[in-house]
Design goal:
The complex is a heterodimer of chains A (350) and B (287).
Chain A: H1 6-47, H2 55-62, H3 68-103, H4 110-113, H5 115-128, H6 133-155, H7 163-186, H8 189-200, H9 208-235, H10 239-244, H11 249-271, H12 277-289, H13 295-315, H14 324-349
Chain B: E1 7-16, E2 19-29, E3 34-39, H1 45-52, E4 60-65, E5 68-69, H2 75-81, E6 82-85, H3 97-103, H4 117-129, H5 145-158, E7 163-167, H6 175-192, E8 195-199, H7 203-209, E9 212-217, E10 220-225, H8 227-230, H9 233-240, E11 244-248, E12 255-259, H10 282-286
Parallel strand pairs in B: 3-8, 3-9, 6-7, 7-8
Antiparallel strand pairs in B: 1-2, 1-4, 4-5, 9-10, 11-12
Helix pairs in contact in B: 3-5, 4-5
The chains are: A mainly alpha (350), B alpha/beta (287).
């Protein structure tokens, strides 16, 4: 562009670059702080329990140094659990951030819309059939996909930023929950108990054999999300503007939602549907980073929420353990109600 | 840039679901010129613009950008040549002005080429042209309607395309800012030869700022050409159903449309309404 005098343009460039870099730096700082917080929480989570391990011995024990007892407890019991919590939290947080940005609606997270419930119903079916973890994971993905397609067909009418979308999701979610309950009533008591614990969301039973595939798939999905993030940034505007800027709106939206659905399915398959993590993590991350789109912080906040909730669940009423999903549910429900009330007021004001 | 890009539509039928808005319309946008599309509400002017901008795929007919079917050209490539400001843009919650304008650079970026000095220069000069540098760090949600409109225009400018389509870019702006934006678009046209297509409500602005005027009614083009040749009382009557007088604009010498309305007597050739001779306004006299 040739407009304006060169000096004014130089001044303008300085302003633009300083504003943009201050945004960047804040995001970087928030990301680093969250990562640090996650590392500390992770270590504390490994350290506390019936057999307490001093915090300073945790990292050596993870690497295989220290007395045999500590190494055993860390490697076989605590580390898989903490890793599972981290991975599942990352998956849910990222998935929620993608969902909410694509829909441009903070109510539109996979747990509120019932996509998690769809994944659970299919996963319970797999559990009752005695399927392997891989089969369970694919089954969960299938269930999540069916639920998503159903929402799309029933609720999608020129945009998704409306109550209609959320209401249809809640309706379908109840149906999926009903189906799950029905499946459980038909099962024998041991399987039913196993499925029940899984359904509330528990990191209890997760072992190394689950963690490796979950980590690999999560890595792949996260890379896909990062490739698509440029498109997501433009999609956040509105459909017309995104098209005008050269984004294939339908195709990009579909790819992003597929990634998000797969993330939910992986997380759900590993730990069960941990309530409200996907719903809560993104708005917290956005507020911390003060940026409209913050995928990495959202994933980190998700992991933090799961680890903290699991720690509280393990220790609050020790030796009785309370599944992690109960605590996240307790925290998430009030926020959900507040958001509904606020959206309602906005809609009334129109 | 000297208007080498061409844009035209042939036998377009544009419809939303079952509702056909434009039945069979052909149009050539003169390159390197400012074109204004005018017409009454719901006459299809925005629909035509959406069709030309490839936001709405025609049921029948083809839009050609540089002689090639726009729907067969990769959409990101189109976005480097043709930019668009839709009627009701929207911004994500909490985004700052500088970040929003920077999103206009998307078509020039790729996975491996994220942010270059060219991007920065384009954003900086777009923001300084629209005088929103002081707002750079402010969240867009906190701005007034007029400020926000200038941010949108800056974003369209940052896209740096030779053809710019703008759907009512002057709504929400006060008169001074309206003129400022239209002057700015004129600068872009004069200095850089950009092709500009505007949907405008204000006929006088359209006359003043466009080389080429397209008047639409019920999905068809009623008249087109240079404003002085096209704008007459009869045309305004036909397009808007409004009685008016047309006289030369004392400043720009382009046609100036003066609506008559129901309360004034405008017998052709009769004495013009002179406020100095009337004690109160005619509206008050009636009551």
């Amino acid at each position: 562009m040739t407009r304006g005098n060169p000096r004014a343009i130089v001044r303008a460039r300085v302003i633009v670059s300083s504003v943009r870099s201050s945004t960047r730096i804040r995001q970087l700082r928030v990301g680093l702080a969250l990562a640090l917080g996650l590392a500390v929480t992770f270590s504390v989570s490994v350290s506390i329990g019936d057999f307490s391990i001093p915090l300073l011995d945790v990292v050596p024990a993870m690497l295989g140094f220290g007395d045999e007892g500590s190494v055993f407890v860390v490697h076989e019991l605590r580390l898989p659990r903490a890793l599972a919590g981290t991975l599942v939290g990352l998956a849910f947080g990222l998935s929620g951030a993608i969902f909410q940005s694509v829909a441009r609606n903070s109510l539109a997270s996979p747990d509120i819309l019932g996509i998690t419930a769809g994944a659970s119903a299919a996963a319970v079916l797999a559990i009752l059939a005695g399927a392997s973890f891989a089969a369970l994971a694919f089954s969960a993905f299938g269930g999540a996909l069916v639920l998503s397609v159903a929402i799309y067909v029933l609720a999608y009418k020129r945009g998704v930023s409306s109550y209609r979308f959320v209401l249809v999701g809640i309706g379908l979610s109840s149906m999926a929950v009903a189906l799950t309950s029905y499946l459980i009533t038909r099962a024998d008591i041991y399987e039913a108990a196993e499925a029940n614990v899984w359904m509330i969301g528990s990191l209890n039973a997760v072992g190394w054999e689950t963690i490796r595939p979950v980590a690999i798939v999560l890595g792949l999905l996260a890379s896909l999300a990062l490739i698509l993030v440029g498109r997501l940034r433009v999609l956040q505007l509105n459909d017309d503007m995104a098209k005008g800027l050269g984004v294939g709106v339908e195709r990009s939206r579909l790819s992003l939602l597929l990634v998000a659905v797969a993330l939910v399915a992986v997380g759900t398959a590993a730990s069960g549907p941990i309530a409200f993590v996907a719903f809560l993590a993104p708005p917290i991350a956005r507020r911390l980073a003060r940026a409209p789109l913050s995928l990495v912080p959202a994933a980190l906040v998700g992991a933090l929420i799961v680890l903290l909730a699991d720690m509280v669940g393990r220790r609050a009423f020790a030796p009785t353990e309370i599944p992690v999903g109960i605590f996240t549910g307790l925290c998430g429900a009030p926020y959900f109600l507040w958001l509904l009330a606020r959206a309602n007021r906005k809609e009334l004001a129109k | 840039m000297t208007g080498v890009h061409s844009l035209k539509g042939e036998h377009l039928q544009l419809a939303y679901d079952q509702r056909t808005v434009v039945a069979d319309l052909s149009v050539v946008i003169p390159p390197g010129r400012v074109t204004a599309i005018v017409g009454a509400n719901a006459c299809g002017k925005s629909t035509l613009l959406r069709g030309l901008a490839r936001l709405l795929k025609p049921k029948v007919g083809t839009v050609y950008l540089d002689g090639r079917d726009i729907h067969r050209t990769p959409t990101k490539e189109v976005a480097t040549r043709l930019g668009l400001l839709p009627q009701t843009p929207a911004s994500p919650e909490g985004i700052t002005v500088a970040d929003l304008v920077a999103r206009g650079r998307y078509p020039h970026q790729s996975l491996f080429r994220q942010w270059t000095p060219t991007d920065e220069r384009a954003v900086a000069s777009a923001m300084s042209a629209t005088e929103i540098l002081d707002l750079a760090a402010r969240p867009v949600d906190e701005l007034s309607g007029g400020q926000r409109q200038r941010v949108w225009i800056a974003m369209a400018l940052a896209q740096d395309t030779e053809i710019m389509l703008l759907d009512e870019p002057t709504t929400f702006l006060d008169l001074a800012h309206q003129v400022e934006i239209l002057d700015l678009l004129t600068d872009l046209n004069r200095q850089e030869g950009r092709t500009i297509v505007l949907v405008l409500h204000d006929l006088n602005h359209a006359c003043r700022y466009s080389h080429h005027l397209i008047a639409m009614r019920e999905g068809t083009i009623v008249a087109q050409g240079p404003p002085p040749a096209v704008v007459t009382c009869d045309l305004v009557q036909e397009v808007f159903g409004l009685r008016c007088r047309v006289s030369p604009d004392p400043v720009s010498h382009t046609p100036m449309v003066i609506p008559i309305g129901r309360h004034l007597n405008a017998s052709a050739g009769g004495p013009a309404f002179d406020p100095a001779q009337t004690p109160a306004s005619p509206l008050e006299q009636r009551s």
